[in-house]
Amino acid sequence: MSLTTQINVPRLNKTLTVPTGLFINNEFVPSVDSKELIHAINPATEEVIASVVAASSKDIDVAVAAARQAFKTTWGKNVTGFERSRLINKLADLIERDAQDLAELEALNNGKPVKIARDFDIGDSIQCLRYYAGWADKIIGQTLEVDNKAKLAFTRHDPIGVCGQMAWKVAPALAVGCTIVMKPSELTPLTALKLSELVMEAGFPAGVVNTVPSLGPIGGAALSSHPDVDKVAFTGSTITGRKIMEAAAKSNLKKVSLELGGKSPHLIFESADLEQAASWAALGICYNSGQDCTAGSRVYVQDIIYDKFLAVLVSKVKEQVIGDGLDEKSGGGPVVSKGQYDRVWGYIESGKQEGAIAVLGGEKRNSKGYFVDPTSGSKFIFGPVLSVGVFKSEEEAISLANDTSYGLGAGLHSILSTECSPYYADAALHIADDANQCMRVSSALEAGTVWVNQYNILNNNVPFGGKKQSGIGRELGSYALEEYTSVKAIHWNFGEKLEWPL
């Protein structure tokens, strides 16, 4: 089969060229032994837009060998931080140059609106690469006093080695000198393959980044259990995360970082700016059509404002336009796959059976595409799926929020300006109390990230990760560098003479 394909997009009056082979050693190659294909589907039309090579376990072996060779020779400790920084910045420049094409490809394969993919996801990826390019020549250790007359010790933060990445988290790994074998989602492999072209164009040595689309039970399992992979980073379900940890333990005890699922709570206190709180709550569940690991899927509202807040929230969700991602008017697109579509509608039907009365949406479209329109009800709002509950006190709100085995994200809205409050004639007297409440509640919430008076906003210099069953390790910020390095202590004796025998 040809290792490239052209995707005609009549709506845009253009053609996108996409590689379809496995990217190993800076080449797009066929599988060693597999004839299986991964069919990338446009969730807005349910049509196959391209088919790519599905890697076998032997292909994973080849990719890992390429990454190991590069780590030993042209990357790892063999290139300066200045050079790593230059190449990472070059990659960021190329992604910025091609941002529109990449966003359109995302819209076709993922369903996400072009403007969201371009301005948020791709834009954030560019900034993330530039942030870690800045770190590449600043990987430092410590000098430690042992005996000033005879000895000293110092530490080195060495790159951990070959990393199996099951999400696009390459920036900190490249910054410290690791090499990468990337397994993109089998549902959305096209953008990762297109980005691999840019890795080659940027000038990275062969084998530093390898991209091997594969089915999870094959590629993911092979990377997790591979004896020559030093670290695995995974984003996905807790169930799969458990399997990865088990495989890592049974193979070579490789390092593992996991960003797993969540049922993130969002608390709305009586002093909140209801318009703003409703907007952030709508963003929390509607962004990426609810397909977000930190989606604020549980909103709890203080009883005194429950009815008014619910009305505002319904009006906000109703404004969200769910349509084809290639339409600039769309704020959300279809869910990514038929499996996800069936799962979401299962939740909606379950909510109806439990007594939810739909006042907005709740009916399937009579057209192609895995679309789930925002649906609201007296007990639930599905955007795609949001449950709304009530609490009376701060203590009850914290208890409800923490009553889960997950702990990825959480949000709260409390403090407001004096002109915003419809409930307090002496609102100014309550601002200090509300600020204290923000500190108390954010401290008490059991989550790796807590947003106060906002939701779902990440910054490249701020760490992100979960507690409890929502994951291990941290992404972003300087903390992420620790996930890709090992600390070596060197003891240097320059003066002590050992007397022997003891």
UniProtKB/TrEMBL annotation:
A Pfam family: Aldedh
Residues covered by the Aldehyde dehydrogenase domain: 33-490
PROSITE patterns linked: ALDEHYDE_DEHYDR_GLU
Keyword DNA-binding among record annotations: no
GO molecular function term, any single one: aldehyde dehydrogenase [NAD(P)+] activity
SUPFAM superfamilies in the record: ALDH-like
Residues forming the catalytic site: 259
Record keywords, A-Z: Oxidoreductase
Family per record: Belongs to the aldehyde dehydrogenase family.
Xref: PANTHER family: ALDEHYDE DEHYDROGENASE-RELATED (PTHR11699)
Protein name as it appears in the record: Aldehyde dehydrogenase domain-containing protein
